[in-house]
Amino acid sequence: MENSAAGGRRAGGRFGRQTEAERNDVLVLDAARAVFAEQGADAPVSAIAERAGVGMGTLYRRYGSKEQLLQRLCVTGITSTIAGLQRALEAEGTGWAALASYMAAAVDERAGAFAALAGTFSLPRELVDANERAKALAERLLRRGIDDRTVREDVTTLDITHVVEMFSRYPRRTEEDEHARRRMLAMTLDGLRAGHPPLPGPQPNWAAYDRIWEPSARS
């Protein structure tokens, strides 16, 4: 019985440390997303640790470098984006309603905050592959709205990406900031509806957008 109890304490301690590590990881990633959205890719790691409420030692035990943290942050972000797109594709209602719901949720999660990180780190293969999957899902979601004639025909998936990025960086310091952001987002999403005048200028180009994520682009 004593040996069993001791084993339970050891297991409990191990599981307790694992639970704490997982909790700290969530805190660090949430803090990193907010800090990079507000301060850009040059934000110091110390600001992330302070926002997360953890020590620098805790952060560096999980991520050996800032680049590792950036990579992990983007991988978890694109995974969440894919899940959001899949939920939107399964939702009932018009194509515009599904697209608008996805975009509002992505902005709330600050999914577009990762745009500030473009060109600052090397892209792991899993991130490149996941990004291509997200593009394909976004194209399906947009096509649904165009096909049922609730979304304007001249919108592209890159337009959607730009909107999410823009509102992800919007300041949220006060309740008034949040109200203003939601009002402007609602107006923007309404602009996706069919029946509006054509959008100005040429359609944005994915090839040009993807190039800014190459590490050499930032330098």
Distance between the termini: 64 Å
How does the helix and strand content classify structurally?
mainly alpha
Helix content: 55-70%
The CATH topology annotation of the largest domain reads as Tetracycline Repressor, domain 2
Shape: globular
| Count of DSSP H/I helices | 10
What is the annotated CATH architecture of the largest domain? Orthogonal Bundle
Q: How big a fraction of the residues is strand?
A: under 5%
Count of discrete structural domains: 2
CATH first level of the largest domain: which class?
Mainly Alpha
CA-atom Rg in angstroms: 20 Å
Describe the structure.
It is a single chain. Helix 1 packs across helix 2 (45-52) and helix 4 (66-90) packs parallel to helix 6 (125-147). The chain has ten helices and no strands. The chain is globular, with a radius of gyration of 20 Å. The chain is an all-alpha fold and 219 residues long. Helix content is 70%, strand content 0%. It has helices at residues 2-39, 45-52, 56-62, 66-90, 95-108, 125-147, 157-168, 175-190, 206-211, 215-218. The protein folds into two domains: 1-64, Arc Repressor Mutant, subunit A (Orthogonal Bundle); 66-218, Orthogonal Bundle (Tetracycline Repressor, domain 2), CATH 1.10.357.
